[in-house]
Amino acid sequence: MPGINFEQVRNEITMAQVLNLIGFELTSRCGDQLRGACPVHGSKTARSRSFSVSLTDHRYYCHKCHSKGHQIELWAAVNKLSLYNAAIDLCRCVGRDVPWVQRW
To answer: What is the pTM assigned to this prediction?
Structure first.
């Protein structure tokens, strides 16, 4: 199985793009910090603020289900994929080529 340059995927696909793709519904914002219902465990409360995202750091954390990570990990958690498959799927969804690692 060929490798993926995960760092390049994280550098080229922003957290904002991932949030848009998963249909994240914002309930509050303070600068680059967003809060809303958690797309990982599926918060049902319309005013939920358990899910916190930093657009600058490209990191998220849910204070309820404790899911956390960067944009590929969020895509993987929401779509129940491995990180490898999530990176491939995310690149496909945003129309980018997968940055395969070239082995010598």
So the answer is: 0.91
SS (H, E, C) the chain: CCCECHHHHHHHCCHHHHHHHHCCCEEEEECCEEEECCCCCCCCCCCCCCEEEECCCCEEEECCCCCEECHHHHHHHHHCCCHHHHHHHHHHHHCCCCCECCCC
- Give dist(CA 63, CA 93) in Å, integer: 28
Structure confidence by residue, pLDDT tens digits, 35-52:
999 999 877 776 677 899
Domain 6-94: homologous superfamily in CATH: Zinc finger, CHC2-typedomain (3.90.580.10)
Q: What distance in Å separates the CA atoms of residue 62 and residue 74, rounded to the nearest whole number?
A: 11
